[in-house]
Amino acid sequence: MEGIHIKNNLLKIIVKPNSSKNEILGFDENKQALKVAICEPADKDKANKEVIRFFSKLLKKKVRIKSGLRSHEKILEIT
Is the alpha carbon torsion for 25, 45, 6, 62 positive or negative? Predict the structure, then answer.
C-alpha cells in the first residue's frame, strides 16, 4: 500500500464505477487523490458500498465515506 496518502485518517479518492474489476488505478497528482476502479454501478449506493468493502478489506480497518456520497470524488475516513 505504499504511495497511498492517508492524512489525519482521511483518504481522498476518485471512483470510476462500472469497471471490470475493483482495483487501484493510480494517483491523480492534480487532485491529490487515489484513482480507483469499482465493479459496481453508481446506482442505488452499490458503488459506495463496494468502495467501503474494497478499502476495508485492503486496509484491514473500518472505513466510511465522510463526504462525496453523490460524487466521483470522495473522502474516506479510516478508523
Answer: negative
Predicted confidence band of residue 6 (pLDDT cuts 50, 70, 90):
confident
Rounded to an integer, the average pLDDT of 24-52 is: 96
Q: How far apart are alpha carbons 17 and 72 in whole angstroms?
A: 8
| Domain carrying residue 43 | 10-78
pTM: 0.91
- Tell me whether residue 1 is in a domain: no
Tell me the one-letter amino acid at 1.
M
The DSSP letter of residue 44 is T
